[in-house]
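User: Hi! Is it possible to get a structure for several chains at once, not just one? Here's what I have:
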Amino acid sequence: MLRLFVHYVLAGIMMTGAAMADSSIIVQSTTSTKNSGLYDYILPMVKADTGITVNVVAVGTGAAIRNAMNCDGDVLLVHSRKREDQFVADGYAKQRFDVMYNDFVIVGPASDPANIKGKQNAAEALTAIANTQSLFASRGDDSGTHSKEKSLWAAAGIDQAAASGQWYRETGSGMGATINAAVGMGGYTLTDRATWINFGNKADFDIVVEGDERLFNPYGVMLISSEKCPNVKAAEGQAFIDWLISDKGQAAIASYQIAGKPLFFPSAK
Amino acid sequence: MNIYLDSLTTALQLIITADAVLLEIISLSLRVSLSALALSCIFGITLGTMLAIRSFRGRGVIISIVNAMMGLPPVVVGLIVYLHLSRSGPLGWMGLLYTPSAMIIAQIILITPIIIALTCQMIEDLHEDYRDLFASLSVSRLSAIKAYIIDARYSLLTVILAGFGRAISEVGAVIIVGGNIDHLTRVMTTTIALETSKGELALALALGAILLAMAMAVNLAATWLKHLAKRRAYA
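Assistant: Yes, the chains can be modeled jointly so their relative placement is included. Here is the combined structure:
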């Protein structure tokens, strides 16, 4: 009764009682897939093919997983392989599906104070940044990109956290906000390629390091377990996943381009 | 500065072409904030008036708490509402998270203290002036409350506008409980946050200008109503 009452009162005032259509799902997603414009491109196709309205909540991978564990969503789409496997191992999803990949790149100002432009080895590049104490903007927000960045510092054998607040600046924000910060202070940052290509405020910044195999960035998708979360719309959620990994979905992902450049590469098996 | 010119042109373009997405976002912003405002005023003006004219133990403490709550950080309110409305939270069964209703609830919590505190202050001043007169005329408490609210109606308009300003401009709470979902819970402020994170700074600033224009339009409408009412009253 209380539930109906609250809905009635609020929806009555809002006059949007019908806004939550039955065949809609909530996807807890990483920000890069949203900021890159991929969802705007593929979700109308999903709607046309399956009739499902996909509502995307875009937060960092860490926050997306936490929200999913609180049952606040039907599908999880993120990029941090280790934590995805943990999510499945903990029983929050039955299975993880490969969807697509792209790669991370290090971007920096034209002045290139650490002199790393054109380097392929990410660990060497980070070592040069640390040695020259050049500014580096870190996500610092427990996101997939942040995890990747920390693993790269570890590979370079540098304790970057000790320089936090000096040349190593943790913004605690999303990818876009962190690039804005890097541009604002003329420092380097690690970003996924899709967000970078679609980013509007590049100033004189460019990609300085790319091509290291450690910069590989795979995305995975999971249906949140109905056993853990009885409210999950399993049929609709699985239909969305099936569409993503179908030939048609994979072709759609591959065909998403900005300025002639593909942003994501399909990888479903 | 080039970016101001860019954003101004963008803003004008969006308005002149009556951009469909923009209209949807503006209308949701107004519906959420005005709904929150209406409900907050019902609670806030009533409670504020009662707090002003009744004396009881602990009144001072309550007033201090309400005053302090005017400074509630929106992001904290968003977090608390999220924890309650989450499927794993105590009110999760209502399924309100990531709906406009959740955003209204968060904004009610944000602006009700402002309405209560300012109303209380205003009515308290009136009460000082009229208490003895009303007592000598044996005016009932209910009639006194009515008289105060009617007498203070123009000042209350400023209180209401202050609440509206806080509701329409905050982003921290609605982005957490609404999720900034396209076509469902995306409002002006969360769109500005999103465009900023995409590096589309001119567009973000243009939306900011439109938000400001909206707030001004609402304020002008209120001033005009007040003017109209005063003219009729003294005609």
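Chain A touches chain B through 40 residues (CB under 8 Å). The CA atoms of residues 161 and 237 of chain A lie 39 Å apart.

User: Great, thank you!
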